[in-house]
Amino acid sequence: MAVTVNELVRIKTPVFSHITSEDLEHIYEPSEDTFLLIDALEKDLELIHKVHPTLCLEVGSGSGVVITALGSILGGACQYVSTDINLRACQITEETGKINGVTIKTVCTDLVEGVTEEVKGKVDVLLFNPPYVVTPSEEVGRGDLEYTWAGGERGREVMDRFLPSVQSLLSSKGLFYLLVLKENDPADLEDIMKQQGFICSCVISRKTGPEHLSVLRFSRI
Ligand SMILES: C[S@@+](CC[C@H](N)C(=O)[O-])C[C@H]1O[C@@H](n2cnc3c(N)ncnc32)[C@H](O)[C@@H]1O
After folding, report:
1. Minimum CA distance residue for ligand 1 atom 27
2. Per-residue exposure over 15-38, b if at least 16 CB sit within 10 Å of its own CB, e if not
3. pTM, entire model
4. pLDDT of 47-78, one tens digit each?
5. CA 45 to chain centre
């Protein structure tokens, strides 16, 4: 029986045993959504390899396991940059990378504010697992942990602020992976990104408890 290359490649979950229970009072614990995003990357590896990525950027990296997982597969020919609004998350992301042999430049900033000039037009793989839970607007950014999940109205307040940046960040062949909840209205997100010239595909979906999560991929081709 024929076996495709993609079927043979598995992305290993990075080691994150250095993250303490005290850390988890401040940063996002790798969870179902985290692992769904890694699964989406694994599913898309053939496509990702075709892009020959030289720069990957994760926005809101939290523990850093997603960008580290990708880095452990793509290796040192690619540069890894991550951002988070939470300084402790940035420090832990750097450590997660180090422990797993991936060098990540981490920047503590709002979305991509502090890295835009450096990465503009160069990002081949862009990752964002945003705070997506539907909450009152006042909860968005109220504290370290609220930053991790509170998404405000339709769970869209943080991701909607980010979407207009995607066009200028991505390289011509770049891929953008966004984790969304059904309540975030994926069809509307697709329409918004279509207006920026992107096509949308749903890479993977999973129902975990009450949440119906999906990973959307946006690309220009
Ligand atoms: C759902 S967690 C995802 C964490 C990690 N990427 C994962 O998949 O496990 C969202 C992350 O986004 C960060 N975040 C929230 N608002 C942000 C903002 N305005 N700018 C940068 N990072 C932000 C949070 O601190 C948190 O680490």
Report:
1. 62
2. ebeebeeebeebbbebeebbbbbb
3. 0.96
4. 999 999 999 999 999 999 999 999 999 999 99
5. 15
Nearest to 176 by CA among 195, 193, 157: 193
Q: Which two tokens stand for residue 116?
A: 């835009």
Which residue has its alpha carbon closest to ligand 1 atom 6?
A: 61
- Count helices and strands in the chain by DSSP H and E runs: 9, 7
Structure confidence at residue 144 (pLDDT): 85
Into which CATH architecture does domain 20-219 fall? Answer: 3-Layer(aba) Sandwich (3.40)
The answer to whether the CB of 129 is under 6 A from ligand 1 is yes
Cβ contacts of 169 within 8 Å, gap of 6 or more: 57, 112, 116, 119, 120, 121, 123, 126
Q: How far is the C-alpha of 28 from the C-alpha of 23, rounded, in Å?
A: 9
Q: How far is the CA of 1 from the centre of ligand 1 (A)?
A: 42
Stretch (H or E) spanning 13: none
